[in-house]
Amino acid sequence: MRILIVFCIVALSTVSIAAQQTEPRSSLTEVATAPDARGASAIEARLLTTMLNGSDDSPVTNIKLVIRNVSPNFYTYVTGWATFYDNAAVRCGEGLFKVDALAPNESVEADAPGLRLRCAPSTWRITATNLLTRTVDVAKPGEPAPVETPAAAAGLERPLRTNFIISIDGEEHPIQLNNPLVLKLGNRDTTIVLKPVP
């Protein structure tokens, strides 16, 4: 029984270390990189805000950063986390960034509202949480491409749009066919899935 417990702890530690190695930490003056679902570099970011001296009494609440698309994909929607660590490698702040459209090799300035940085960080990293492409979702690389019908090829059938925007209380969220959108309503998560009529 003890051997089984020790084996489980070692296995979980290995998984944890492997997960931490996918988004390496960078110094504040270096570029941070985030991979896509396949492990290829997708976006990189560089900090524009240089005054990052937060504390518990006076946290830094926003930063400016430049996001660059280093992949060959055109992203229609990108979100991610900028996470900061102090000298002891303890996480002391994180903020969510959002970009609405990002072409290959394009850079855009973004911010991270809602950040609560409570230290003078020494390292940081970024994590991509949503990388929606123009034609397919990178998070689902194994799905087959849609088959074009003869009526569509002849121009007799209206093409089916795969990208939609849902507006909830004035806030717009991208949604794709068969790709769930999870919203927090009150104290529970609600999943919305847009499906074609069979």
Please tell me about this protein's structure.
With 198 residues, the protein is mainly beta. The protein has 2 domains: 24-133, Immunoglobulin-like, CATH 2.60.40; 156-192, no CATH class. Helix content is 13%, strand content 39%. It contains 2 helices and 12 strands, in the order H-E-E-E-E-E-E-E-E-H-E-E-E-E. The chain has helices at 2-22, 150-153, and strands at residues 26-27, 32-35, 41-47, 64-69, 75-85, 91-99, 107-111, 123-133, 163-168, 171-176, 181-185, 188-192. It has a 4-stranded antiparallel β-sheet with strand order 1-8-5-6, with no helix packed on it. The protein is globular, with a radius of gyration of 20 Å. The relative contact order is 0.15. The model is unreliable at 15-21 (pLDDT under 50).
Brief rundown of the structure:
The protein has 198 residues and is mainly beta.
What profile does the largest beta sheet have?
4 strands, antiparallel
Do you know the CATH architecture of the largest domain? Sandwich
Counted up, domains total: 2
Average pLDDT taken over every residue: 77
State the total count of DSSP E strands.
12
CATH class category name of the largest domain:
Mainly Beta
Features of the shown structure:
198 residues; mainly beta; 4-stranded antiparallel beta sheet; 12 strands
Topology:
Blueprint: H1 2-22, E1 26-27, E2 32-35, E3 41-47, E4 64-69, E5 75-85, E6 91-99, E7 107-111, E8 123-133, H2 150-153, E9 163-168, E10 171-176, E11 181-185, E12 188-192
Antiparallel strand pairs: 1-8, 2-3, 3-4, 4-7, 5-6, 5-8, 9-10, 11-12
